[in-house]
Amino acid sequence: MEKLVERAVAETLRDGGGEAICLYVAACTERMAPLFMGLRANAPGRESDLDFYAETVRELWHADRPLADAAERVRLLEQFPELQPNEEGITDVVDTYAFFAVLTLRYALPGHGSGSADDAVSCGHAALTAMGMLDQNEAGAGLLAEEQRLQSFSLSGDAAGLWDASVTAGRERFRAVLGRLPRHACF
Questions:
Q1: Within a domain: residue 1?
Q2: What is the predicted pLDDT for the residue at 1?
Q3: For a surface tag, which of 26, 28, 68, 119 has the fewest beta carbons within 10 Å of its beta carbon?
């Protein structure tokens, strides 16, 4: 399957290594975090998953030090319902975007933990795929193009500006997904 991550971004990740990869995956997960946190906020029994997700995203922003427990965090994340096989597949809006948020974090962890450019590219690909799907369902949304722009910006080294832009983009995504839900939907 062709990766959606722009060639220049993928090459910079492969050439830049460590800190560039860490900032890139932190930013990708920050932009996707509201989709998991917001869509699963009222799900019974998910409190510890929400805490784990939020703490992990926060830890990813420490680009100067790899996560020593990245493999353990991946193991815990892989137990989330979003990553469990399901005969029926994912069919509703809430589950779809929560899945992509978890998948983005799933690839971010080894990318950050070991500096793997391939995992970083997979992390970015998951975020781009989700935004492409959302664009298909929201006329004129432009979320895919914005994600591509922010992925390039992630390699600028401006961590403070990147965090601000990522938080803002995450909120916009969450609002776009909420706009896709029926007015009476209660998740």
A1: no
A2: 34
A3: 68
Contact 39, 99 (CB under 8 A): no
CATH number at residue 99: 1.20.1590.10
Give residue 79's domain range. 7-180
Q: Is 8 exposed, middle or buried (0-12, 13-18, 19+ CB in 10 A)?
A: exposed
Close Cβ partners of 76 (under 8 Å, ≥ 6 residues apart):
52
pLDDT by residue (tens digit) across 27-57?
999 999 999 999 999 999 999 999 999 999 9
**pLDDT-derived band of residue 159, with 50, 70 and 90 as boundaries?**
confident
CA–centroid distance for 62 within its chain: 16
In total, how many domains does the chain have? 1
